[in-house]
């Protein structure tokens, strides 16, 4: 069996920022998805743009994009990279009173953008929580995961799941 080793640890077990200087720049893309579970009442208010703090999804989109750009400042061993594209999209699952948040990040770099996509998705979800907490305290954020990654040595990864 081919044993994989953790890339952020050296041979002695100390933390290590991975040296990506020898890796070629390639087009890299990552997509992350998470879910925000609301009550039917809060979901209806969000959909009708009737929440007291304003347009939740516009604010969450901007927050997610801004967060992706700050990822290396939040995750200690994450490389600062030039992002060529970041987007945050929302699918409103009305039957479930759920918002599916999907964040996409792209770069042409020597390292991937999985962390940027994951941070964007999580911060967008937390912004939805913040914007809705005045009317509901028991909002649940769940199922944050990488659903696509391409570029780089490890190739393509796809998690095939429906958006809701």
What is the strand and helix layout of this fold?
Layout: E1 26-37, H1 40-47, H2 56-69, H3 71-74, E2 85-93, E3 98-109, H4 114-132, E4 140-150, E5 157-158
Antiparallel strand pairs: 1-3, 1-4, 2-3, 4-5
Compact description:
27% of the residues lie in helices and 28% in strands. It is built from four helices and five strands; from the N terminus they run E-H-H-H-E-E-H-E-E.
Structural features, described:
The chain has four helices and five strands; from the N terminus they run E-H-H-H-E-E-H-E-E. It is α+β, with helices and mostly antiparallel strands. It has one domain (26-158): Molybdopterin cofactor biosynthesis C (MoaC) domain (Alpha-Beta Plaits), CATH 3.30.70. Strands 2-3-1-4-5 form a five-stranded antiparallel sheet, covered by helices on one side. Helix 2 (56-69) packs antiparallel against helix 4 (114-132). The protein is elongated, with a radius of gyration of 18 Å. The model has no long low-confidence stretch (mean pLDDT 89).
Shape: elongated
- Element string (H = helix, E = strand): EHHHEEHEE
Strand order of the largest sheet: 2-3-1-4-5
CATH topology: Alpha-Beta Plaits
Distance between the termini: 36 Å
Number of strands: 5
Secondary-structure-based class equals: alpha+beta
CATH architecture name: 2-Layer Sandwich
Number of domains: 1
Let me know the CATH homologous superfamily: Molybdopterin cofactor biosynthesis C (MoaC) domain
Major sheet details: 5 strands, antiparallel
- Number of helical segments with 4 or more residues: 4
């Amino acid at each position: 069996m081919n044993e994989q080793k953790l890339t952020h640890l050296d041979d002695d077990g100390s933390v290590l920022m991975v040296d990506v200087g020898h890796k070629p720049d390639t087009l890299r893309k990552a997509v992350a998805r998470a879910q925000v579970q609301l009550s039917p009442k809060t979901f209806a208010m969000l959909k009708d743009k009737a929440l007291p703090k304003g347009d939740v999804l516009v604010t969450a989109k901007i927050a997610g994009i801004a967060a992706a750009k700050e990822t290396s400042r939040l995750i200690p061993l994450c490389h600062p990279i030039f992002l060529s594209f970041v987007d945050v999209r929302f699918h409103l699952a009305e039957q479930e009173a759920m918002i599916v948040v999907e964040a996409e990040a792209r770069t042409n770099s020597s390292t991937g953008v999985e962390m940027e996509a994951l941070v964007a998705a999580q911060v967008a979800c937390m912004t939805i929580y913040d914007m809705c907490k005045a009317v509901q305290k028991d909002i649940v954020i769940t199922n944050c995961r990488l659903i696509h990654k391409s570029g780089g040595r490890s190739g393509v990864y796809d998690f095939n799941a429906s958006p809701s």
